[in-house]
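Give me the fold.
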Amino acid sequence: MNTLPKAIFCWSGGKDSAYCLHKVLSEKLADVKYLLTTINDEFKRVSMHGIQEVLLDKQVEAIGIPLLKVRVREGTNSEYEKQMEAILLQAKAEGVSHVIFGDIFLEDLRIYRENNLAKVGMKAIFPLWKMDTTYLINDFFKKGFKTITCCVNDGYLTGEWAGKKINKQFIEQLPTNVDPCGENGEYHTFCYDGPIFKNKIEFKGGEKVYKALPLKTNNDCTSQSEITTKGFWFYDLIPN
């Protein structure tokens, strides 16, 4: 009998992570020993998504898999890679050989992840790779998951899209240049209910905040298109 590879699952707290984790667990693709999330240690929030760390902890408690936290303050790639390498080597010493990601079609991101893992002698698993994003989001609804936008990219969407619960009407109303799963970074989400959770994550809506990007000639948020991103709208979720 084949033994499942021991793995870390990269958990953002959003819908793609939730759907991907459900797929991994239900289809027995790996033995998930840990979840892993990058935290902005200055603000105590999930990097990019802006979700409060306490809400992340509530998700993890409801899932029932231990969480490893990569804490960053400078926000540079070198800092992130250094912190990530330390945690991966620690997990590798415990027999973990693979890291699971919920990426769907960003080739450059996949190569970046695979190259970094190769440095520590580990391999990547991409369970959702090249799957149709319209199918994915509809199957997400079908399986009973619930999620809300916590961050939107102003190159694609206006601030009114921040703090919207995602359903079929939301997807139907998206501009035509926005991927249904937001795979190009158009929007990010917080998943608060679904089959991977033992209980629903309770929260209330808070402040909506706009944060402009530092002025520069290029950034990785625009590498996939001619869209110009000037900043992001964040919708703060307050734990109940």
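The mean pLDDT is 94.
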